[in-house]
Amino acid sequence: MVLLKVLLLCAGIALLLGTLAILGYDVYLYQRARRRVQSAEHAQEKLLQPELKLRIRLAGMICAAAVSAFLLASIYDVVPAGHAGIRVSQISGTESETLYPGIHLMSPFETLAVYDTRTHTMTTGNVDESLTERPKRHETLNVTASEGLKIGLAVTVRYKLDPAKLAYIHNNLPSDIDTEVVPPVVATVFREIVPNYTIRDIFAVHREDIRKTASEEITAKLKRDGVVVEEVMLRDIVLPADYAKGLEGLIEKEQEDEGLIVQTAIEKKQVQIAQYQAEAEKVRTVKQAEAGAQVRVLQAKAEADAMQYTLPLKEKQIQQTKLEAEARKQATIQNAEAEAQAKVIDSKAEQEKQQLLASAEANRIRVVAAADKERLQGEAMALKSNPLLINKIVAEKLSDKIQVMMVPADGKFFFANDVLKSSAQQVFRQEEQGADPPVKPQSGPGGGR
């Protein structure tokens, strides 16, 4: 927006220069025409007198445009970032409203006073050479201690302007606040506080107390002027050369003395600790012995109590063992009797089985004998009716390995005739007598007849 304002101003100036150029050019044309008329009079030529024709309308329009540009550039103003401003009117004076960064409308009778509201730094004494942005440095702040000796203080104060009090600052404070307002206040506060302390207290004991007290007073005084103090730092204390040497030696001796005191206190504490440890060990040993005795007493009582309950339990266990032995004895006797009865039953069953088998075998033999009898009778009747079947019977009785020759039964082969006849006669005699064929006695499984 600042660039736009500059462009408008440049445009207005350019338009004004253009208007002057147009009017000058018109005047130049008029003068050139007049010179031509004058030269024509010497040459006895008659020319009309020229008229001055100015392009007033065009020039007025360009001037109006220039004035408009100037007006546009003057009716607003820009407050940059990190700054704040106030309107200063030529009619009513300073206005109380604070203008923050941005664009603000302004009347032609107002001007904008801009102040930097960023953090400022005021430093006294030496500055660290490694800092890229060094603050404004003032001379070392010299103050007087209670002994009347001068010491130097390296102080740094960080502060910024309060945007809400810019109207008061503009009307009542000098324009250069960094050099005319803050440094005198800081120096005055430290020169009022430091004389209440000795150099030794300032250097070693109450340095932080002095800084805090000075910070509170500086903050309170500058706050009334619209300056907000962010931090007060006491970076260094410069002592007089002779006093510094003596103070260093004294501090070293005091440190040694304090070290001896601390060492003595440590040794005393170590002795006390050893005594306490010995007493604790003694008490621990006594307690352990008492605890062991109590444990043994408790164990003896427990064993006695256990015996009172153990003896009846043992007696019950013995009785139970006797009962179990008697039960096993009875069980063994019963098992033996049962086994004997089982063997008797098994022998009776086996005997009955053998008798049944013998009866069954006798019945089978009788049935087989009856069947053989009927078969032989049938064969005898068949041979009687058909004598040629003798040859077939002989062939069946003989082995397959014997070669048999069949001959007719004409009486020439006496052996066959006698055998067959004797067999047939025996069968006929049995039929006539009606007797059963003899049965061969058989022995049973038990060996009886």
Question: Could you please describe the fold and organization of this structure?
Answer:
It is built from 10 helices and 10 strands. With 449 residues, the protein is α+β, with helices and mostly antiparallel strands. Among the domains are: 2-115, no CATH class; 119-239, 2-Layer Sandwich (Tetrahydropterin Synthase, Chain A); 386-438, no CATH class. The strands form 3 sheets. Strands 6, 7, 8, 9 and 10 form a 5-stranded mixed beta sheet that branches. Strands 3-2-5 form a 3-stranded antiparallel beta sheet, with helices on one face. A hairpin with a 5-residue loop joins strand 8 (141-144) and strand 9. The chain starts with a helix and ends in a 16-residue tail after the last helix.
Summarize this entry quickly.
The protein is of the alpha+beta class and 449 residues long. The protein is 63% helix and 14% strand.
Helix content: 55-70%
Order of helices and strands: HHEEEEEEEEEHHHHHEHHH
Number of strands: 10
Q: What's the shape?
A: elongated
Termini, distance in Å? 152 Å
